[in-house]
Structures are given as structure tokens and as C-alpha cells.
Specification:
- The chain is an alpha+beta fold.
- The protein has one domain: Rossmann fold (3-Layer(aba) Sandwich), CATH 3.40.50.
- It has five helices and two strands, in the order H-H-E-H-E-H-H.
- It has a two-stranded parallel sheet with strand order 1-2.
- Helix 3 links the parallel strand 1 and strand 2.
- Helix 1 packs across helix 5.
- The two termini are 21 Å apart.
């Protein structure tokens, strides 16, 4: 649904950037964690300029098919209008599309929320 929503928004003249997050830990600021106290300290965090290049804009929607906690560092650091669309609960359905719609994860819902954020 994210790519379908992006196409719809682009057709409306709204710029879109889709970013897939693999390791949300790297998106925290160095002082958000206690990395310096670890035996094998790893301070490889994304700096402010890099964060702005990836997530800067007029609006931001974090979308996850799991827990919204995965998006915490993005929501903490972002300074633009933002919202989260996340999995609400599991259910039995005959297709992935049905279960995603049950959780509000549809292209229409994402495009509508994005339009509201940047209006």
C-alpha cells in the first residue's frame, strides 16, 4: 500500500520519498542511548544532516506492519508534521490485503493522511 499511496500522491503533485528502515537503532542520536557504557561501544549513528536528507520534508508518515516502537527514533528526531500508521492487531483473513485493510494500512488511508499533513 505504501508504493500505491506514493503513486497517488505523486499524481497529485506531492513529492514522496520512501525509506526502508532496517536498523532503527542507527537513527537515534548518540546521546539517546547508553552506547558509551558498552564493552564493545558502537557509535555509528546517523548525523543530523544525514537524517534530514532521508526524513526531512513537509510531512512524514511512519508505516510499519509491526509495532510502532520501530519508528520511535524517527518520530523523536523529526521536526516536520508527522504521524504513525502501524499494525493494530492480528486477525484471520483470506488475504494479506484484507488484514492490512483491517489494520488501516491501505493506499487510500495513507494518501489521505499524507494530504492532510501537508495541507
Amino acid at each position: 500500500p505504501v508504493f500505491d499511496a506514493a503513486s497517488d500522491l505523486e499524481n497529485q503533485g506531492i513529492g514522496v520519498r520512501i525509506v526502508s528502515v532496517i536498523s532503527p537503532r542507527r537513527l537515534y542520536r548518540p546521546d539517546d542511548t547508553a552506547w558509551k557504557t558498552c564493552t564493545d561501544a558502537d557509535g555509528g549513528f546517523l548525523d543530523d544532516q544525514g537524517f534530514e536528507q532521508l526524513f526531512g520534508g513537509d510531512g512524514l508518515i511512519g508505516v510499519t506492519g509491526g509495532t510502532s516502537a520501530m519508528l520511535e527514533p524517527i518520530m523523536l528526531r523529526s521536526t516536520c508534521k508527522r504521524d504513525v500508521v502501524a499494525w493494530k492487531r492480528g486477525e484471520t483473513a483470506s488475504s494479506a490485503g484484507q488484514i492490512m485493510a483491517f489494520n488501516g494500512l491501505t493506499a487510500e488511508a495513507l494518501a489521505k493522511r499524507a494530504t492532510e499533513l501537508v495541507s
